[in-house]
Amino acid sequence: MSLGRMRSAWNLGGVNLVFPGAVMLVGLAIAVSGRLFGLGIAVGAVMAVLNSTFLIKRVQFAVDSPSAAVATVSMQVGLLLTFGVIGLVTLLLLVLSVQMAVAMGITFFAVQTGEIVLYYLGHSGRPAGGGARLVGRR
Asked: What is the reported pTM?
């Protein structure tokens, strides 16, 4: 298997699955050991992957839209739907366990930040539009 195929196998529409997958496995291992917050960690990693996937789809739809108004509305509606899904999952976890909900929130933030860092490291700090490079990069 070539390196390019291996990279595409570990990506879901541009979202790197290695980091969130590792975090999810750690969360499941903690849950198996009897700690409820482990399920919150696993759910947080899954929610971060879903959020990233939805974000990529929203941006692609906005780029392909015929006008700036359609692009703006589609981004806002998609953002509200994503917030709604995350909010419902958080409420469900709060009903089950406060520990799970807090672990989900912390993990969601950490995995989402990690995905952004991995994305920029993988693209050598260059914006997609070919604009100016990040400070300090050559």
From this structure: 0.74
Q: Cα separations (Å) of 104 from 6, 55, 63, 86?
A: 29, 19, 31, 10
C-alpha 118/C-alpha 15 separation (Å) is 10
Choose among 32, 41, 21, 28: nearest CA to 101. 41
Residue (of 64, 60, 61, 58) closest to 78 by Cα position: 58
CA 79 – CA 69 distance, rounded (Å): 15
d(CA 78, CA 70): 12
The neighbouring-strand residues paired with 16 are 11
Phi, psi of 135, rounded to the nearest 5 degrees = -60, 135
2-29 as b/e, with b when 16 or more CB fall inside 10 Å? eeeeeeeeeeeeebbbebbeebbeebee
pLDDT tens-place string over residues 20-53: 889 999 999 999 998 888 999 999 999 998 888 8
